[in-house]
Amino acid sequence: MKAILYDATLREGAQGPGASFTVEDKLKIVDMLDDLGVSYIEAGNPGSNPKDAAFFKRMEDHPLSQAKLAAFGATCRVGVAPEDDANIQALMSANTPVVTIFGKSWDFHVKEILKATPQENLDIIAITVRYFKDQGKEVVYDAEHFFDGYKRNPEYALKTLEAANGAGADWLCLCETNGGCFPHEVEAITKVVADRFPGARLGIHAHNDTGMAEANAVTAARCGALMVQVTIAGWGERCGNTDLFTLLPNLQLKLGFDCLPPEKLQSLVSFAHTFHELANLGVNPRAPYVGFNAFAHKAGMHIDAVAKNPTSFEHVPPDAIGAERAFLISEVSGRTAVLKKIQRIVPGVKKDSPDIKRIVQELKQLEYQGYQFEGADASFELMVLRTLGLHRPFFTLKGFKVIVNEPAAEGEVASAMVHILVDGVEEITAALGNGPVNALDRATRKALERFYPGLSSMVLSDYRVRVLDSKFATAAPVRVLIESSDLNQTWTTVGVSTDIIEASWHALVDSLEYKLFKDNVKQKELAKEE
Fold this sequence. Notes:
The chain is an alpha/beta fold. It contains 18 helices and 16 strands.
């Protein structure tokens, strides 16, 4: 059975707290959705603000490969003909093939919000839909607050659908606008609508105020509402809307609906990361399907089972949506997880090797101290190499000193002096920084670049601190994560101590050592090729 995806991110999603898209952003997102295979893209209300109007103007010279662009707006006002209504004419000026019109389905809203009689509301629904059909538009009718309206006055709610359907609406979309319904309610009401309008094409628009958006959308689709309105990552007003990333694989992989070609579905994780980069946000790691944790296994027994048969703890194959399985390394990991991680670092290590036991013991001891390697693969790799005796440090610390100066002079509040040793050669350098860690980083790089010029391409791109046990207040141990990058890669390292400077130093040393180690490996590979 074919399910039609209708994305409302650029209108409904943009109404969510913290969401803001420029015209250029919207153009990029439209292209991404079009490439993914979404059938309808609702891109805003051209009558509500100049930015939406400017976007629709740009879209006139921005053709889509397969998706249909929809402009969104309300029915005409009571007593005003569509041709004289400014918002209706703004919808016409958007020049989209599809117009989505929302109208009132709840008699409470008709009387108290619209300040109209029940008949006047039915009239403006019919007049507006008929007007756009006469102009050659495909019309999606969004029955706002339909489920709440039906529960209070079922006959009137159905009459609003009759008005739209009788005027020629192509789709009747049932809106669960308040997000307060449960699946059993959505099921019962959608079945009534499907029986009442056997030839109509139905849709569902669900909000997530009770955490039921995806469940309600799936339920409605199974009852015949085959246009499912979604937003990317569930963005939307209040608690958000039906999440594209959850709903799409649920419909296609779990229930057998035909939504997208398999190769398009396999790009879902990549799509999620690209969108969140554009929005300057990270993907929720706990998000179903597209979050990092969705196919990450930590417990030793789980990892062992997945290694033998992935279906033991995975409900779908991760590659079906472009995800990758991850075995997390921690104190609860078994040998299987550690072995797979080690074999990526040192190929050829056998399962029964005593090295595995040594690494597991070292891992557990470090995690007891507060280390965590789930998000610090570079430190884990170095730990493995050190434990196996396969890593020679590129430099040795003789000592460092950090001084914090207050008040600061032109923002440089700290200075650091570093004394290092490289192959028997000493180097002492100092640097200023906008904080003690920054000063320490600058001084260390300054000392090392004399010996390793390649470090000049490396930058510290993120720095995070977590207090591990707050009951010790300012004496609490802290875990520091440092993310670094160069022209080719990004890596993360970790350090732990009751002294935040010392914890930062450990993470910083690992970051530098990892960069030098990778550069050395690359040089050896190039030498072999020559």
